[in-house]
Amino acid sequence: MFRPNPWNFSAAAPSSGAGGSDPAEGFIGDGDTVTVANYAALPSAAANSGKLAWVLADSGTLWTKKYAGWYVSDGATWSPATLPDDQYVVTAALQTDVDAADTTLLQAYDVDGAAYTTFATLTAGNTPTFDLSTATTIGTNNIVASPGSVTDNAIVRYDGTTGKLVQNSGVTIDDSGNISTSGKITATVLQTQFIPAASIRPSASGGCAALALTATTANRPDLSYLAFDSSTAEYAQFWVALPKGWNESTVTAVFYWTHPSTATNFGVRWGLQGVAVSNDDTMDAAYGTAQEVTDTGGTTSDLYVSDATSAITIGGTPAEGDMVCFRVYRDPANGGDTMAVDAYLLGVKLLYTINTLDDT
After folding, report:
1. DSSP 8-state assignment for residue 211
2. How confident is the model at residue 102 (pLDDT cuts 50, 70, 90)?
């Protein structure tokens, strides 16, 4: 049986053929002759261009085509074999089938007419189940299939590259948000490490003044600092063993400092450069290119914190587990350095990126 939809048919019975049934529904049987009476309210092509009509057959097949005019002429024979190609074509047929295990298969016909593909199954039992195939899509979205059993609280992972399969994982998140895993966590994270003035020593060549200690007020913080001259470039150094998680790339630096009393012009130009040394490498190595930043003071014994420098490229060939020697300096020849008294360095904060949280 075929039933055109959504057209509104007359209640008249089909004019011929053995397939007619329930004229109140407007069915037209296979082999029936189509008459105008069967199309009492067929809409016009102009009013319905582009709309989708469908015809349902006894077998459960769904025939579809966009409306583009009169589908079947008066006097034509209604049969799948005689449907004109320019009026009805099979574009997305559906059918049901049953396999050897009595599982109902819901199948769609390929648009190229190659074969039927099962997109879902319906299994009867004490608890009926409806399982979509992993090949199924809804529009441009995939139906995702998961394994039969998983670990409670486990993070879902894709299985393969189709976007249709997921799998269990060994990473869990409990109800309090705590993450657990037996493996390594890989991440790109910015880390900081503060180097106080007490851990920085004047360079043997062109060094700044030795570490000094001054009090603010009795029973209040004392200041440990290195004094850098206002007219001559002076240097200091410190060594750092960065963690194995360091990505061996560039670093930046922030300078913490203060100054003694002065009336005007408070600009100070700070700089930093570094070189990495691996196991059994010579430590007689050249520093990489320095980066500088200007900061402005103003009030005696106040704390001043500079902006971060631009990215500092470490000299040598940085590798996992290296020690890095840094040289910090004041650049009084720079036009931004205008303060006529010593600048007191309290410490340097390094900012570097790690790519794993595991340092083993």
Report:
1. P
2. confident
